[in-house]
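Summary for the lay section of the report: proteins are chains of building blocks that fold into shapes. Here we show the chain for EcoKI restriction-modification system protein HsdS and then a coded description of the shape we predicted for it.
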Amino acid sequence: MNSKVNSVKIGEYLYIKGRIGWKGLKKDEYLDKGEYRIINATALESDGINWNNCGFISKERYDESPEIMLRLGDILISKDGTIGKIGYVKELDMPTTVASGIFVVRNLKDNVIDTDYIYNYFQSSFFKSFIKSSTEGSVIPHLYQRDFYDMEINLFDLDTLAVQ
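The coded shape description reads as follows.
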């Protein structure tokens, strides 16, 4: 089978955003209950997002960062501390956002690249190698948005992969 493979920069296909640090959301602003959920890296577990391990924030704090309001199909990646923990938003029962240590990754071209493929790629040894090479030598490991934008991923021509 002759399939075409294109290597592309992931930032050309994905929306990648994180909480802006200068907005200063502190852990002590988290609420015990509420109508606006916030996910931090401890909620990202090997089998998905542990919704019981999330906090809550005020409506004002939720509304100030529309760029990281979650949607179904979003992929979450921890970018500080324990880098590379992955979550996939397959359900969403209330307005939810992310804490400062997480990137929101959204597929902008689902007609070209499958979101499940992206999610599985982020769980692969290729992505783990990318994280390792991006953070080596750092005193405090951190995945930067600019490095993530420039990361290359292989896209396969789905028409040529179809069983004939």
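Put simply, here is one thing we learned. The chain has one domain: 13-127.
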